[in-house]
Amino acid sequence: MNAVLIALLLVPLLGAAACLTPVLGSDPVAADRRALRFNTAVTGIVLLLTLALAAGFDHGRPGRMQATTDIAWIPAIGVRLHLGVDGISLPLIVLTALLTFLCALYSARRLPSGEGVPSARSFVGLFLLLEVGMLATFAVLDLILFFLAFEIVLIPMYFLIARWGSGQRVPAANRFILYTLLGSAVMLLGFLLVGTKAGTFDMQALAAAHGSGLSHTTQVTAALAIMVGLAVKAPAWPLHSWLPDAHTAAPTVGSVLLAGVLLKMGTYGLVRVLLPVVPDGTATLAPYLGAFAAVGIVYGSLACLALARPGAKGDLKRLIAYSSVGHMGFVLLGIASLTPAGVNGALFANIAHGLITGLLFFIVGAVKDRYGTADLDTLSGATGAALYGRAPRIGALLAFAAVASLGLPGLAGFWGELLAMFGAFDPAAGLSRPAFVTYMVLAGLGTLLTAAYLLIVIRRVCMGDPRQPSAVAELPDLRPYEALSWTPLAALTLLAGLWPALLLGFSDPAVKHLLGGG
Length: 518
Hints:
This protein has 518 residues and is mainly alpha-helical. It has helices at residues 2-18, 28-56, 89-110, 120-139, 143-152, 154-164, 169-198, 203-209, 216-233, 242-249, 252-277, 279-308, 316-336, 340-371, 376-380, 387-390, 392-405, 412-425, 433-462, 480-498, 501-516; strands at 66-74, 79-85. A two-stranded antiparallel ribbon has the order 1-2.
């Protein structure tokens, strides 16, 4: 099993390296076609390896780290090449492999091209390097390696936005890289403080110690630095302002991976590092994290409502980006409760958000391709975009993803938010229950506001009279490659909603292990 986990990282890394060689041919046009097929093949192999890893996982002991590799890498400072998966990281690895494969499948037909746009071979090399960093973040068990994996994703995503994006793509990419680099630098200071005081960077050893040997002041200082760094990537209000610009400018596959995986790297780090390594410092800062999370939920929903109203010139991609601020607020609130229910809800909401928001960005990208814009006022016009009448399959999928995002029972978006609010209703011992109940009430208000703006979007984009003149004479409905890319996300959204134990059975024992330190 450990060989499978190592292969998961080596295959896309070797694939990215192959794009630097003439192996794909010398003719630029033919090389680009081969590169896109090569990208689909490599990401498909990674997905198969991920499924093999999941099949070989000991489902009876998901709280135990499995498929481990632990060898010395930089002995001088005690850094080890330590890899492993448990019930917390395995679902995120599967989600990452699935989304990257679906994005590769989609980009094989819808890769932006034209004057000034780099070759497809460059895109594939960066795309596979991005996959390496995302997978490694969820697989490494050393703080320094975690930092390196966390950083690897920044450069490929920067170029995906800056070179294959649209609109104000360069300023958006610059803002993305500056915010996340600054956050990573602050996070590294926290890691170094923990490692030097504890004498090891090994995350398993630090989790087993559960804060013993670290003074309260050290724990609070380290927890603050790590929390701020990870909150930038999450993104938590008020460190979120890079996200709407990045999503608006990014190509479709960039938006899908940014929302579906990169945001999860921040919240995963909070669970994997903060909760077990510096528990006292985390408990001290938890009420503040909960407060920022509650504000973020309401703020994100209000921003979306403002963008959804007629005359606001709201961009659909920007609206979904702001919705992510609200949805990730539920994840942060669940983590801040420091309870098994809340943390399980946060991890469930992580996966649900990746599935649902990934599907939303795919659909909005397709609508933008057809209409040439994602501006709500332009799409709705005087009679509505009328997707139900003009492109009924796309309209139905958009409505499905929207009601899943607002937390309709029976779909994936419901359970994570419910458990996060339940954790806030009865937080861990030592936390102020009145404060967290207040946060829960604000989160409940956020769910109502979420339903309001998403129903407005459905009305303006899906409804209307299809017989009225439209900006596009003929609107193609769901194409085969779109159906192949989107159907797995819709099916898993339904499956996770109807069978939540599928995910909670993985995470619950591992969460209790982390919180208990045993």
